[in-house]
């Protein structure tokens, strides 16, 4: 999460949606010093509802708050590669093996694997001012935020990028898509993503 009271900006960090890249770019542009210092995932990935409670509904609602969403099929592939290739936590050698044989309740409740609606929604619906889509391009998302805040043009890098095939290639077994549809049903509905692999 990134909170800047001068810019009246709140950025919600939804795991594996490019939010870290956007945070780095915005921090450079804003000279942000009031971001929570903890590198603990539960703090960095506080959801919008909890941040609203912490800073107060009136303050939260008067700021521009946003998060980025990503096609749940694509996001799950990215999560697999992050936790398999980079973190070494997932021991399954293939995406299919992980999804069909090892993606149990414990994994589905792990913070990074929670639905995107957990981060941006409350029981009443979307909490943030805006939910951008990863598919529109991080550069375009950042350009929109920079324009909204009246900042100078800001370049974006890409943090924590993984090397992999197109996400569609990972769903040759239709049962893997069935699991993702079930686990992220709220995301498909809330953010209007197609439930078929396209």
From TrEMBL:
PANTHER family: CARBOHYDRATE SULFOTRANSFERASE. It comes from Thioclava indica. InterPro entries: Carb_sulfotrans_8-10 (IPR018011), P-loop_NTPase (IPR027417), Sulfotransferase (IPR005331). It is a single-pass type II membrane protein. It is found in: Golgi apparatus membrane. GO terms for biological process: carbohydrate biosynthetic process. GO terms for molecular function: sulfotransferase activity. GO terms for cellular component: membrane. The keyword Iron does not apply. This is Sulfotransferase family protein. The keyword Transferase applies. SUPFAM superfamilies: P-loop containing nucleoside triphosphate hydrolases (SSF52540). It comes from the Bacteria. Keywords: Glycoprotein, Golgi apparatus, Membrane, Transferase, Transmembrane, Transmembrane helix.
């Amino acid at each position: 999460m990134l909170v800047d009271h001068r810019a009246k900006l709140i950025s919600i960090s939804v795991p594996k949606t490019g939010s870290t890249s956007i945070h780095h770019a915005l921090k450079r542009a804003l000279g942000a010093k009031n971001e929570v210092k903890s590198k603990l995932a539960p703090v960095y990935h506080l959801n919008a509802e909890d941040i609203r409670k912490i800073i107060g509904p009136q303050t939260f609602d008067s700021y521009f708050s946003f998060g980025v969403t990503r096609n749940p099929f694509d996001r799950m592939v990215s999560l697999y590669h992050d936790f398999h290739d980079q973190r070494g936590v997932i021991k399954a050698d293939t995406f299919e093996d992980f999804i069909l044989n090892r993606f149990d309740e414990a994994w589905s409740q792990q913070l990074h694997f929670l639905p995107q609606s957990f981060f941006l929604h409350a029981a009443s619906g979307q909490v943030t001012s805006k939910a951008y889509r990863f598919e529109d391009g991080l550069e375009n998302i950042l350009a929109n935020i920079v324009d909204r805040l009246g900042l100078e043009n800001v370049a974006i890098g890409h943090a924590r990028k993984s090397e992999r095939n197109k996400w569609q290639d990972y769903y040759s077994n239709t049962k893997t898509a069935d699991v993702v549809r079930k686990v992220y049903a709220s995301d498909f509905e809330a953010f209007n993503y197609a439930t078929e692999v396209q």
